[in-house]
Design goal:
It contains six helices and 15 strands. Helix 1 runs parallel beside helix 6. The two termini are 22 Å apart. Bound molecules: thymidine-5'-phosphate (TMP) and aspartic acid (ASP). Aspartic acid binds next to strand 4.
Length: 237
């Protein structure tokens, strides 16, 4: 499938049309952003690392029966995906307290959350991705009741697969964010799964191995992403 014109350029990925209207190509760039685009940098190897990381995780999720948009990796930093109509919400699951949950509720960072906490956020950088609930989503028409139920079920099904995958590599999956879209009437996992959109701590030392290294200027950001990848069995090109 040939790469055609640019459809959209986001904070870390560019999206291209292909000659088939059902598919598009994701190009993972080295650009990194945090705090709704307020902090930015280019980090060498990041595009290739996140593309390969995402391909590996999406294939694990598909093998566990979760519908994803991922088709195949095309090059070190490009992948072919199905073209979804995205729902404008972000689905977050938290297994440990961190980030905005700690700031919002004043709970202790690292506290185990049982059962895990599910939260919706509105995908809107200008508003700082505010937390929203089912009522907002229904009333403003961002998704239907069926899509809400489907997103919750799939996001929690992903937790079962990934908690174990990372635990086997000596890491705690603290929290993560997923985005969904529709493809010919089916709810499908879209966007990406990489250390940019989750928190991962070393199980023993609790060292941060995710984008908090960039947010908090801890250094060795991509080295940590590569270490996470190696621990779950990725052989980077
Ligand atoms: P938070 O603690 O900032 O609410 O984020 C929870 C998790 O979701 C964390 O792993 C980062 C991820 N996330 C994103 O990647 N993008 C977003 O826009 C949001 C709201 C969360
Ligand atoms: N991923 C979101 C952003 O780029 C949130 C964050 O990383 O702080 O703004």
């Amino acid at each position: 499938m040939n790469k055609a014109e640019l459809l959209y350029s986001g904070k870390a990925k560019s999206v291209y049309h292909t000659d088939n209207p059902d598919f598009m190509i994701l190009e993972f760039r080295d650009d990194t952003s945090a705090f709704d685009g307020k902090k930015k940098a280019a980090l060498a190897r990041k595009g290739a690392v996140n593309n390969q990381f995402n391909a590996f995780v999406m294939e694990k999720l598909a093998a566990a029966g979760i519908p994803t948009h991922f088709e195949k990796q095309l090059s070190a930093n490009e992948s072919l995906v199905r073209k979804l109509t995205m729902l404008p919400v972000e689905c977050v699951v938290r297994n440990r307290a961190a980030g905005s949950l700690v700031r919002r509720l004043g709970v202790e960072e690292g506290q185990t959350l049982s059962p895990p906490v599910f939260e919706f956020f509105l995908k809107n950088d200008d508003l700082g991705d505010p937390m929203i609930n089912d009522a907002h989503i229904l009333t403003f028409g961002w998704a239907t009741a069926e899509q809400i139920a489907g997103m919750k079920a799939l996001t929690l099904a992903v937790n079962d697969v990934l908690l174990k995958l990372f635990a086997d590599g000596g890491m705690i999956l603290v929290d993560y964010k997923l985005e969904f879209g529709m493809f010919k009437g089916e709810l499908v996992l879209g966007d990406e799964f990489s250390p940019d959109g989750c928190r991962l701590w070393d199980s023993k030392t609790l060292e941060k191995m995710d984008k908090d290294r960039f947010r908090q200027d801890l250094g060795n950001v991509i080295e940590a992403y590569e270490e996470v990848g190696r621990r779950i069995g990725i052989e980077f090109q």
